[in-house]
Each structure stands twice: as structure tokens, then as C-alpha cells.
Design a protein that fits this description.
about 190 residues; Nitrile Hydratase, Chain A; 2 domains; two-stranded parallel ribbon; about 50% helix
Length: about 190
């Protein structure tokens, strides 16, 4: 697949349809500045400000947009909160509906048929492969993202992070923790 993508990119570049430098800038923006960093700021704000957290859980689209993160694939958002009793995980069983403006580019595994099927059939097994071991008493809820609704998991604030600033907290949030296949980093 990678060779095919490179060949297509080379052909489009040779014919003047794309500028490779512009493409690199766009990809870098979605990988590092737009996506996951935006979502991390949303999560950190919810951890620090109880009113924002309530708003996010009640109307995620509006709460996220209030921070300036809206646009393509960022509409129709719903936030679901992880607790000690419930762990949420997002999958798109039919396609790859994914909130780019909040999470950046979708990871390859998110769009893969094995992830999509196994997340439904064996969520604990999938989480284990991502390095997440949950107590058997923790219920796992799977949310099927669609064109009508996309999900953001609000992970639990890590232990030992009480005194961190909002910016420091955002650095603990990972893309996978906002999909539910990972946990935030420890401080």
C-alpha cells in the first residue's frame, strides 16, 4: 500500500496536480498541530473546569467549537466519559467516520477491518493488545461512530495530576486515550 501511495503521489506531482511541499505541510498540520493536540486541549479543559466538562458531556459539538475546533468531520460530536466503572471505546463498523478536527488523521488500524470487527467481538482483547488492562468489574461500552455522530472519549484524569496546569495536562492526553484504546500518560 505504501508503494502505491508513493507512486500515486509521484505521478500527481509530475503532472503538476499537487505540490509535495504543500502536501507535507498539510499532513504535518493534521498530525501534530490540528488533530490530537486540539482534542488534548478539550480534554484538559474538561479536567480543569467542571462547567466545561458538563457542557462537553451535554453538547460536545458546541463545547468543542467554543475552543475554535470545528470543521470537517468535527460536527455532530458526542463526548463519553470514562469512569472507574465504565470504559468507552470508539469504532466505526461501516467505514471510518472520524473527527479529524479534534483527533487529527485517523490511525491506519482504526480503519482496518480486523480492528472494526474485533472491537465489537472482543474489546478486552483489543484493549490488551494496546496495553490497556482493565479490572473485570469495569464495563466496556463500544460506540459506533457514523456520519451522523462522532465520539470523543473523555479519559479519566491520571492519578498524581492534581497540581498540573491545563497545558501540562494536555501533554498527558493521547489520541488513543480519546478513542478509548489507550490511557493518558502518567505525570
Amino acid at each position: 500500500m505504501e508503494l502505491r501511495v508513493r507512486a500515486l503521489e509521484a505521478r500527481l506531482s509530475e503532472n503538476g496536480y499537487i505540490d509535495p511541499a504543500a502536501l507535507d505541510v498539510l499532513i504535518d498540520a493534521y498530525q501534530t498541530r490540528i488533530g490530537p493536540r486540539n482534542g488534548a486541549q478539550v480534554v484538559a479543559r474538561a479536567w480543569v473546569h467542571p462547567e466545561f466538562r458538563r457542557w462537553l458531556l451535554q453538547d460536545a459539538t458546541a463545547a468543542i467549537a467554543s475552543l475554535g475546533f470545528a470543521g470537517r468531520q468535527g460536527e455532530h460530536m458526542t463526548a463519553v466519559e470514562n469512569t472507574p466503572d465504565v470504559h468507552n471505546m470508539v469504532v466505526c463498523t461501516l467505514c471510518s467516520c472520524y473527527p479529524w478536527s479534534v483527533l487529527g488523521l485517523p490511525p491506519t488500524w482504526y480503519k482496518s477491518a480486523p480492528y472494526r470487527a474485533r472491537a465489537i467481538k472482543d474489546p478486552r482483547g483489543v484493549l490488551r493488545e494496546f496495553g490497556v488492562e482493565l479490572p473485570q468489574t469495569t464495563q466496556i461500552r463500544i460506540w459506533d461512530s457514523t456520519a451522523e455522530v462522532r465520539y470523543l472519549v473523555l479519559p479519566q484524569r491520571p492519578a498524581g495530576a492534581k497540581l498540573l496546569s491545563e497545558r501540562e495536562l494536555a501533554n498527558l492526553v493521547t489520541r488513543d486515550s480519546m478513542i478509548g484504546t489507550g490511557l493518558p500518560k502518567s505525570p
